[in-house]
Amino acid sequence: MKTLLSFLKDYKKESVLAPLFKMLEALFELFVPLVMKKIIDVGIANGDRPYIVRMCLLMVALGIIGLICSLTAQFFAAKAAVGCSTKLRHALFAHIQGLTYSEIDDLGTSTMITRMTSDINQVQSGVNMVLRLFMRSPFIVFGAMIMAFTIDVKAALVFVVTIPVLSVIVFGIMMITMPLFKKVQKGLDRVLGKTRENLLEGDDGVPKDEEKAIEILTKAAEEFNSNISKVLIVKNIMSKGIQGEIVNYVLAKRYAKEASDNGNAEACVLYGKLCMKQLTNKYGTIKQNFEETFEYLKLAYEQGYPDGIAYYAYFLEFPHGLFIPDIKRAVALTKIACDKGSEFAIFRHGVHNLNGICMPVDTREGWRLINIAKDKDVPGAYFFYGLANYYGTYDMPKNEGDGLKNIKISALKGNLEGLHKYAYLADQYPEEIDVNKIKKKLIEEGYIFSEEEHRDFGSDADICYEAAVQLDKKNYDDAFKMLNKGISKNY
């Protein structure tokens, strides 16, 4: 416990203010029965309506002040909990880096993953709950008993009996559940170990059973409510979706939201991305919601997660009509995320360098970063590199063949701009571009609608449906115009 408290030393103010405001909230709640007593004994007994109205307004004021105190306490508790868990995660990672190979083998990779993720999330939730409830709960219990004695001594004796009984029950539950938590930890370790065995290749290079791995992960997600398992399932679904398979985005979105609401920063980013999609397939419908995208990317950013910072910055740069873009802040945050190792931020920072956005133009540094992003398989980096190669811009020698090749790679990896550009170039390269394949890909990614989906979504999908029709007719210019029009209207 002393070790854990050392990670809260930079959050002393928050650790004091959170319980203090919670106690204030409880205090205002305890005043409500007294005000109610006055309304009955004085206002109603004497038929004094103005007095009753005044007391009712006082109750409303107490409620509003209590709510403000509660929100303030939650803010400080969350800030302290997230900060503490971030420092603890960094310290644990540094400690793991210092372990010898034999110590790593003894502990096991799955155990260390659980400690770094699930266990630290539990610590974060625990710190948050302690700061909010540790002082409030006893204060409101004993405060309620004291207030009850001021109103009716005989009725208050119920509290005298009930409070000790409840205390015994609560401590009994704690004593029973603490060993169970250790069993859950071991269970998660086993689940992760088996999952790694099935996902990774064996020593002979033969791939293991991916279906078995997903089955194990699903069991862990449902039975243990494991954030790690849910995130791995979501990433698996999204990667298969990018490869062109019809996948269960409905399940992915549900798991991503559940893990996000449990405090997992990576899940916040995944859920934010899924909220940008709008499509229907045999598994159901997911709808676009840019407000939720921004909300969950902001949560990931506030937790200091590198990709969270990167995608939050990208949304500040291109806010989809929610607010005025904040380019300067977006560029600054992208640089921070780039320095923290976010692959997407490395690509975006390269683009900023090439275009001189809020910084001097630095072509060499820009291409260095974009090449790093390409090596890390970032779809947008392939598209930007291919576009510059195709047209010979940003000091890149013109080579239409290589440019088209990179644009195609970005398209097949699900990059929206790459898909559009590749479809647009179809009339110039009819032998090289399979329009039906691109159309299928666009429909699967939810960027245009099939005839069946057009009926489901109604008139709002007209532009996107028309794009699909024009692709069928090989009117590529018109299809491209329709796609761009659809994007501008957020369809």
What is the N-to-C succession of helices and strands?
Answer: HHHHHHHHHHHEEHHHHHHHHHHHH
Percentage of residues in DSSP E strands: under 5%
Q: Helix- and strand-based class?
A: mainly alpha
- Please report the distance between the alpha carbons of the first and last residues: 52 Å
Specify the helix fraction band: over 70%
Q: What is the typical, i.e. mean, pLDDT?
A: 78
Structure annotation, total helices: 23
Low-confidence stretches: 200-207, 448-463, 486-491
Q: Would you report the number of β strands?
A: 2
> In one word, what is the shape?
elongated
C-alpha Rg (nearest Å): 29 Å
Sketch the major β-sheet. 2 strands, antiparallel
Please describe the structure with a list of short key phrases separated by commas or semicolons.
491 residues; mainly alpha; two-stranded antiparallel sheet; 23 helices; 1% strand; disordered C terminus
Description of the molecule:
The chain contains 23 helices and 2 strands. The chain has helices at residues 2-6, 12-46, 49-97, 101-107, 109-133, 136-151, 153-199, 210-223, 227-242, 249-261, 265-274, 290-302, 306-317, 327-339, 343-355, 363-375, 379-391, 400-412, 416-424, 435-444, 451-457, 462-472, 476-488, and strands at 279-281, 284-286. Strands 1-2 form a two-stranded antiparallel ribbon. Strand 1 (279-281) and strand 2 form a beta hairpin. Helix 7 (153-199) packs antiparallel against helix 8, helix 12 (290-302) packs across helix 13 (306-317) and helix 13 (306-317) runs parallel beside helix 15 (343-355).
